[in-house]
Amino acid sequence: MTVTTDIIAKADDRMKKALANLATELKSVRSGRANASMLDRIEVDYYGTPTPLKSLANISTPDGRSLLVQPYDKAAIKAIEQSIHKSDLGFTPNTDGNVIRISIPVLTEERRKEMIKTVKKIGEESRVAVRNIRRDNDQEIKKLKGSGISEDEIKSAEESLQKVTDKYIKEVDKTIHDKEQDLMEV
Q1: What does the pLDDT read at residue 32?
Q2: d(CA 140, CA 147)
Q3: CA-based R_g, the chain, Å
Q4: Residue 170 burial by Cβ neighbours in a 10 Å radius (0-12, 13-18, 19+)
Q5: Residue 47 has pLDDT above 80, yes or no
């Protein structure tokens, strides 16, 4: 394996991580269907320590329009309910003492458009991240000039890096397009 191949492999790995980060970010953007990952970003003040909700409770989807949060510690119900209510998701939790039920409201057309703008912004941030990775690795390749590596190999490495970049930009675009389609479904 040559130095340039190592650089391309490293760039590919970093771009793969950027794509995985995009998928994680998009899970928190809610569509019209209930999904336990909608609550992934919520942190609860649990005895003075910010703790992820998924560490404090079992989250399930009994149907397509609701979430059921079952805390492991019943004493945390009030704190969990407050955290869900304060979140930017717009949910109103209902507690019966043992579990928290969250009804997922149908998205209005205006809210769908806002969500699509958010998705596009997240997508652009991911494209920028991929391009920054390309730029960093391209600079690494350019530093190899004059170090005994042929001009042809450097040129080939730059082309390979661009192909990898194009592949991941296409993946980002496809992922964003799929999420937009998901948001537009009624």
Answers
A1: 65
A2: 12
A3: 22
A4: exposed
A5: yes
The CA distance from 106 to 68, in Å, is 17
Say how far apart CA 43 and CA 46 lie, in whole Å. 9
Question: What are residue 94's DSSP bridge partners?
Answer: 101
* pLDDT tier at 73, thresholds 50, 70, 90: confident
pLDDT tens digits for range 74-89: 888 888 888 888 877 7
Q: What is the DSSP letter of 117?
A: H
Which whole-number Å values give the CA distances from 7 to 1, 3, 87, 159, in the listed order?
Answer: 10, 6, 41, 12
Strands laid side by side in the 57-63 sheet: 57-63, 66-71, 100-103, 93-95
For the ranges 12-21, 64-73, 86-95, 140-149, the one whose mean pLDDT is highest: 12-21
pTM of the model: 0.70
Both tokens of 47, joined, read: 């005895």
* Residue closest to 119 by CA, chosen among 28, 18, 14: 28
